[in-house]
């Protein structure tokens, strides 16, 4: 089969776009439109804007599949990718931006040949989770024996640094070859092509870069984050709200390798009225912290000394909500105060994470939490993936996995079109991708949002009802198994 990009020399490819539709699209896209010069136009089958995990995974998937490998593809990334390619830290240091990869996401990365490029010694699979209510103490415990959710070896999920993943994806792309990479070039405008002597490109998106290049795309993919220029060009609205919360992250050193050691580490999450706090295992004696709280409390945490910060993290998993409120109001001295209170607070050691004994210098950071969902994932010759399509609260650790699910579905949709001789950019042929992903993502985002709101209160009636429900679920292995299969990405579809 001839590569789609080459066929423009012999026939017209504007196909399946009526002139009225094109006019409407142009009106909606005026905010991000430019004109293009045919003499400098470069023509591609797929142009992807954004060199994060979603964009790199998509291009790797297209190049790894014999059906789609002949496509002419390009990547536009505003930042230099060299720091990512050279990412390397000693075994005693870890990046503070980590993600929990489900077995399904790992399976996809294995299928496209990227997982073997991941530095596995920096990845930690964990085999259980403990989640509990910080007000009532009601808890739910997940283990690999429940519901058949885990992979072989009992792993529920894998903690991995985002930079470790993107470095691996770049390595796989370098291995595959055939991708035109425009790094360090910003998108300065997106418009439409013009009629040429060989083809009508008037319905094709044309991306203009700061390097003076113009790329016409049969399919333009937006993997360019929450403020996506591609989404703006397509005239697709993104709706949602800010939570008024901040995620504080840090790399922590523990007193030991975790309960169960390397063979069976556990992830912990406690729901506090200000937001959930999670301790997620990394290799050896390290873990990553994700603490969702108010902007004021986040600022206080970041201003503490390393010793007081460590003490506050330990307190977050061990002390009462009343104690935490008092400790937050102290300008300093949390270390001594927490130590005294811990000695007078009963708790079972293995029901909480091992004690934190240190925080990696420079690893404490924060970011705002929000929910956003695009009205559609597709337009005429446009598709959105990852954060360009949706942003979710991190309490379920599903943001990156949602993006990988998008990429897998879109890559399969493109392959289906190529295999059946269809135009990969026509909206009608992209509907398969949207129908697979939109409802599924929307349902998951709704569940996560409701969980956040349910636990962000100290109302005694609400606390009583949610605690009763949590205890009921904890007593039913079949229900816990369902939730674990959903969290691991191997469950039944919601709809």
TrEMBL record:
Gene3D superfamilies registered for this protein in UniProt: FAD/NAD(P)-binding domain (3.50.50.60)
Domain FAD-binding: 44-439
Subcellular location: Mitochondrion inner membrane
SUPFAM superfamilies referenced in this protein's UniProt entry, alphabetically: FAD/NAD(P)-binding domain (SSF51905)
Keywords: FAD, Flavoprotein, Membrane, Mitochondrion, Mitochondrion inner membrane, Monooxygenase, Oxidoreductase, Ubiquinone biosynthesis
Enzyme nomenclature, EC number: 1.14.15.45, 1.14.15.46
Entry GO terms, CC: extrinsic component of mitochondrial inner membrane
Major subcellular site: mitochondrion
Keyword Cytoplasm appears in the UniProt entry: no
Reactions catalysed, as given in the entry: a 2-methoxy-6-(all-trans-polyprenyl)phenol + 2 reduced [2Fe-2S]-[ferredoxin] + O2 + 2 H(+) = a 2-methoxy-6-(all-trans-polyprenyl)benzene-1,4-diol + 2 oxidized [2Fe-2S]-[ferredoxin] + H2O; a 4-hydroxy-3-(all-trans-polyprenyl)benzoate + 2 reduced [2Fe-2S]-[ferredoxin] + O2 + 2 H(+) = a 3,4-dihydroxy-5-(all-trans-polyprenyl)benzoate + 2 oxidized [2Fe-2S]-[ferredoxin] + H2O
Top-rank EC class of the record's enzyme: oxidoreductase
Assembly information from the UniProt record: Component of a multi-subunit COQ enzyme complex, composed of at least COQ3, COQ4, COQ5, COQ6, COQ7 and COQ9.
Function description: FAD-dependent monooxygenase required for two non-consecutive steps during ubiquinone biosynthesis. Required for the C5-ring hydroxylation during ubiquinone biosynthesis by catalyzing the hydroxylation of 4-hydroxy-3-(all-trans-polyprenyl)benzoic acid to 3,4-dihydroxy-5-(all-trans-polyprenyl)benzoic acid. Also acts downstream of coq4, for the C1-hydroxylation during ubiquinone biosynthesis by catalyzing the hydroxylation of 2-methoxy-6-(all-trans-polyprenyl)phenol to 2-methoxy-6-(all-trans-polyprenyl)benzene-1,4-diol.
Name of the featured protein: Ubiquinone biosynthesis monooxygenase COQ6, mitochondrial
Species annotation: Glarea lozoyensis (strain ATCC 20868 / MF5171)
């Amino acid at each position: 089969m001839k590569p789609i990009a080459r066929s423009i020399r012999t026939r017209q490819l504007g196909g399946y776009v009526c002139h009225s539709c094109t006019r409407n699209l142009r009106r909606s896209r005026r905010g991000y439109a430019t004109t293009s010069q045919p003499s400098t136009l470069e023509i591609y089958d797929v142009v992807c804007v954004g060199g994060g995990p979603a964009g790199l995974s998509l291009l790797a998937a297209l190049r790894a599949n014999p059906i789609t490998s002949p496509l002419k593809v390009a990547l536009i990334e505003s930042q230099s990718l060299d720091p990512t390619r050279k990412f390397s830290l000693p075994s005693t240091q870890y990046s503070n931006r980590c993600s929990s990869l489900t077995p399904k996401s790992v399976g996809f990365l294995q299928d496209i040949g990227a997982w073997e490029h991941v530095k596995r010694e920096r990845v930690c699979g964990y085999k259980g989770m403990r989640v509990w209510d910080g007000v009532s103490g009601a808890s739910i415990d997940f283990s690999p024996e429940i519901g058949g959710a885990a992979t072989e070896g009992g792993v529920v999920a894998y903690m991995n640094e985002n930079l470790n993943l993107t470095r691996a994806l770049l390595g796989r792309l370098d291995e595959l070859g055939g991708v035109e990479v425009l790094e360090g070039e910003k998108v300065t405008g997106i418009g439409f092509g013009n009629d040429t002597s060989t083809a009508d490109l008037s319905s094709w998106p044309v991306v203009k870069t700061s390097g003076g290049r113009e790329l016409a795309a049969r399919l333009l993919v937006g993997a360019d984050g929450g403020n996506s220029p591609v989404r703006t060009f397509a005239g697709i609205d993104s709706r949602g709200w800010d939570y008024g919360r901040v995620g504080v992250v840090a790399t922590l050193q523990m007193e030991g390798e975790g309960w169960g050691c390397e063979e069976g580490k556990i992830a912990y999450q406690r729901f506090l009225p200000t937001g959930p706090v999670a301790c997620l295992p990394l290799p050896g004696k390290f873990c990553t912290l994700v603490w969702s709280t108010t902007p004021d409390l986040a600022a206080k945490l970041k201003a503490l000394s390393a010793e007081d910060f460590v003490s506050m993290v330990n307190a977050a998993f061990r002390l009462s909500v009343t104690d935490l409120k008092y400790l937050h109001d102290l300008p300093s001295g949390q270390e001594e105060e927490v130590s005294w209170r811990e000695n007078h607070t009963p708790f079972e050691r293995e029901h909480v994470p091992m004690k934190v004994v240190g925080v990696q210098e420079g690893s404490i950071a924060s970011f705002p939490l929000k929910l956003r969902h695009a009205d559609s994932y597709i337009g005429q010759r446009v598709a959105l993936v990852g954060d360009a399509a949706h942003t979710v609260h991190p309490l379920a650790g599903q943001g990156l996995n949602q993006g990988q699910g998008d990429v897998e579905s879109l890559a399969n949709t493109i392959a289906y079109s190529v295999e059946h001789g269809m135009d990969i950019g026509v909206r009608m042929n992209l509907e398969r991708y949207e129908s697979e992903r939109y409802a599924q993502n929307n349902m998951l985002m709704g569940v996560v949002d409701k969980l956040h709101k349910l636990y962000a209160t100290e109302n005694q009636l609400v606390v009583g009802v949610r605690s009763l429900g949590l205890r009921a679920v904890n007593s039913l292995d079949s229900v816990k198994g369902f939730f674990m299969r959903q969290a691991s990405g191997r469950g039944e579809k919601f709809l």
